[in-house]
Specification:
mainly alpha; Serine Threonine Protein Phosphatase 5, Tetratricopeptide repeat; 2 domains; globular; actin filament binding; ENTH_VHS; ENTH domain-containing protein; clathrin adaptor activity
């Protein structure tokens, strides 16, 4: 493929991916853009293409832009987080523009803040890859110094706060109306980013648990009271988030949601570390090994899209029947109104007739 055709294909993929249509992002467009970053070893074409789209014109444009950036950070070329940092002000601009708007507004505000925080995190800690997966040895090396361990734990908790705040906004909107049901195109467009949130929250949670155990073996419990309180909130919200996601078949088309522990770890008992970590790592393997392959994902998505078309056809049929019934009701109301008007006129005519006209002559 020549360079002109490659650039044209990338630009067209971005244009087709970022549309006003309230439908889920097409996997083929996403794959084209992701592969483009690996081919070019850069996301420059993506950012150049996005600059030609006025994202402030429609909330769904911004929503799909955020989703694409999130996917690129996770699965694009390793240089993507660094290049995204150069555009971090764009996230702030979009958050300010949409924060007070209805429907998507609060969700976009939370998503842009999440992405802004993420690129800052990668800038501060470039040894974290976009998909966030690091080995226990790498993690221990990062936190070998106590002060660094405290800062890293705090930064990862901040990432969890952003992710959980975002999913709360999405579910708040989703639960506000049947329009956002995950079985509708609009609902899937809204809910699709939560798949990446599942993939992000799990490794962060594992790392925080490990760092908290390490901290409790080196710092007095009293000094870590604030960390424990913050962790407990993260634990409860993440558990609730996974349980909510597990109710929807739509998410299971893409990823197997880890089974969250029933209880938070006891950081005062170091002997619990190994068993707790073993459980978490086992769930991690399920998460990484059961991510739906591209071909299977396409098949499942096609099945969903076909079902949505059927539902749309059923909806159109019901709507036509409703329209016909509405017209019939209006016609009957009109006839009744005419009948009532005629009866009223006849009664008025009777009351206005002089008495002589009622006399019977023999």
């Amino acid at each position: 493929m020549d360079r002109d055709a490659f650039f044209r294909g990338q630009f067209q993929a971005v244009q087709k991916a970022i549309t006003k249509d309230e439908t889920p992002l097409k996997p083929k467009h996403l794959e084209t853009i992701l592969l483009g970053t690996h081919t070019e070893k850069s996301s420059a074409i993506f950012w150049s293409s996005v600059k030609k789209i006025k994202l402030e014109n429609h909330p769904v444009l911004t929503w799909k832009f955020c989703l694409l950036v999130h996917k690129l950070l996770r699965d694009g070329h390793p240089v993507v987080p660094k290049e995204a940092y150069r555009n971090e002000k764009r996230f702030t601009q979009l958050a300010l523009h949409w924060k007070d708007k209805r429907d998507y507004g609060p969700c976009i505000d939370a998503y842009c803040k999440l992405l802004h925080d993420r690129v800052i995190f990668h800038h501060k800690r470039p040894y974290f890859p976009g998909n966030l997966f690091v080995s226990p040895l790498q993690l221990d090396t990062m936190g070998r110094d106590l002060s660094r361990m405290l800062r890293l734990t705090g930064d990862m908790m901040h990432q969890m706060d952003s992710l959980l705040a975002f999913q709360e906004k999405v579910y708040l909107l989703s639960n506000s109306s049947p329009r956002w049901d995950p079985n509708t195109p609009q609902g899937q467009c809204l809910m699709l980013p939560l798949i990446s949130v599942i993939m992000d929250t799990w490794p962060f949670f594992i790392y925080i648990v490990r760092m908290m155990y390490n901290l409790h073996s080196n710092v007095s419990p009293h000094e870590l009271e604030g960390y424990r309180s913050r962790f407990q909130t993260i634990f409860e919200k993440t558990k609730q988030f996974y349980e909510e996601c597990s109710k929807h078949q739509y998410f299971r088309c893409f990823v197997q949601i880890p089974t969250f522990p029933l209880h938070a770890p006891n950081f005062f008992t170091q002997s619990d570390l190994e068993s707790y970590q073993t459980y978490l790592i086992g769930e991690s393997k399920k998460l990484t090994e059961t991510v739906t392959p591209a071909e299977e994902a396409r098949t499942r998505i096609e099945h969903y899209e076909n079902r949505l078309k059927e539902m749309h056809g059923e909806f159109q049929h019901v709507r036509r029947e409703a329209d016909e019934n509405r017209e019939e009701v209006q016609r009957l109301r009109y006839e009744l109104a005419l009948r009532d008007a005629s009866r009223t006129q006849n009664q008025a005519a009777i009351y206005d007739t002089p008495p002589d006209e009622f006399s019977i002559k023999f």
